[in-house]
Amino acid sequence: MTTALEAPRPAPRRARASLPTVPALVVGTVSHHRVGPVRHGFRHAVYQWLVDLDALPAQPWWLRPFCTFRSRDHLGDPHRDLKTNVERFLAQRGIRLGPGARVLMLANARVLGHVFDPLTVYWCLDRDEALVCVVAEVHNTYGERHAYLLEPDADGRAVADKEFYVSPFNDVTGRYEMRFTLEPERVATSIALRRGGEVVFSASLNGRPTPATRAAVVRQIMTKPLMPQRVSALIRAHGIFLWARRLPVVRRPHHRAQEGV
Questions:
Q1: N or C: which end of the chain has fewer CB within 10 A?
Q2: Residue 78 burial (10 A CB sphere; 0-12, 13-18, 19+)
Q3: Phi/psi at 240 (nearest 5 deg)?
Q4: Which residues contact 220 (CB under 8 A, 6 or more apart)?
Q5: In terms of C-beta density within 10 A (0-12 exposed, 13-18 middle, 19 or more buried), how is residue 234 classed?
Q6: Are strands 40-52 and 95-96 parallel, antiparallel or unpaired?
């Protein structure tokens, strides 16, 4: 890791790909699967937002309570804008996007004052819209966050050692195998936690991006109301299920915040 006084290295380049039109609503499903002493899985219908951090969607006053974005909900300084925070996070780690760069964020919007994002994904693109890197920002239910800086291969695959306590039923060991898909007809993320040569947990989001027109936003608010509240409630409900099945609870270690996060 470089210090703030070191010159950032040039951004690595990936092949340019076609991108979805943004802002978009990514409508699809999220699924989890756990193996081990207590097997458990689920699949739920969800929607998330895919937005350009240079042009966050402006909503009429009557929709703002259901779809707003705030810097304090994500990495970096809550008093700076989201893109500046992402660029500072990268610069502290030796990557400079340069003028004309874009950052596309996949996340939940704040709804009626509440938001929770188990995973926020930032696709960082250079001025030619070639992929430079991906930042995967993970949140847990204890108000902590951790960001993984990744450089996926041509198929969107990346690996990283687990460094952050997420679930009370998993310790901070193992290695993540991830894949990120950003295409005009499909946006997807998948994470598998591998430990001792075996996948012990996997999660995925698979959806189709559609233009975030007012009618589309209203449709999702009506058919999937209070999405971030529902995510928070479901996480706790599934946790209670596992606890009731006597799955051992792993003590949460002290969290040391990352620089820029």
A1: N
A2: exposed
A3: -65, -40
A4: 25, 27, 47, 227
A5: middle
A6: unpaired
Give the DSSP H/E element, type plus range, for residue 48: strand 40-52
Position 195 in a domain: yes
Neighbours of 252 (CB within 10 A): 14
User: How many CB atoms are located within 10 Å of the residue 202 CB?
Assistant: 17
Residue 251 domain flag: no
How far from each other are the two terminal CA atoms of the chain, in whole angstroms? Answer: 14
Q: Classify residue 257: in a domain, yes or no.
A: no
DSSP state, residue 90: H
pTM value? Answer: 0.91
CA angle 93, 94, 95 (to 5 degrees): 105
Question: Is 165:252 a contact under the CB 8 Å cutoff?
Answer: yes
Domain-embedded: residue 21: yes
Domain limits for position 180: 9-244
In terms of pLDDT, which residue wins out, 151 or 16?
A: 151
- What is the tally of structural domains in the chain? 1
Residue 245's φ and ψ, nearest 5 degrees, are -85, 10
User: What number of residues does the chain have?
Assistant: 261
Model pLDDT for residues 37-65, shown as the tens digit of each residue:
778 888 999 999 999 999 999 899 999 99
**The 3-state secondary structure of 66-85, one letter per residue:** HCECCHHHCCCCCCCCHHHH
